[in-house]
Amino acid sequence: PVPLLVSEINEDSCTLEWKAPSWTGGEELKGYLIEMRVGDSNIWRKVCNVESHLKSYQVKNLEEGSEYYFRISAQ
Predict the structure, then answer these.
(1) Quick one: residue 12, left, alpha or beta (phi over 0 = left, psi -120 to 50 = alpha)?
(2) Which of 6, 13, 23, 68 allows an S-S link to 60, with CB 3.0 to 4.6 Å?
(3) How high is the pLDDT of residue 23?
């Protein structure tokens, strides 16, 4: 797994930063899928897809005091 860095955390947003995978299985990297889940929920929901040249994304419209989990998948 590639480490995910969460920075610039404030009351309604945060910035996610990651590195490209070292191996893509021989396939061209098309982009990344960003997902999140809230608190104790087991449901991951899509935040967005970003292009392969991007390695950071600002997640907005978060609620202060809530706990969030994020994951990034290469596509």
Answers:
(1) alpha
(2) 13
(3) 85
Pairing of strands 14-18, 4-7: antiparallel
Length of the chain as a residue count: 75
Q: Give the strands of the sheet with 14-18, arranged side by side.
A: 4-7, 14-18, 56-59
Per-residue model confidence as pLDDT tens digits over 46-69: 999 999 999 999 999 999 999 999
DSSP string over 8-73 = S--SS-EEEEE---S--TTSPP-EEEEEEEETT----EEEEEEETT--EEEE--PPTT--EEEEEE
- Cα 26 to chain center, whole Å? 23
Q: Which two tokens stand for residue 11?
A: 């009351």
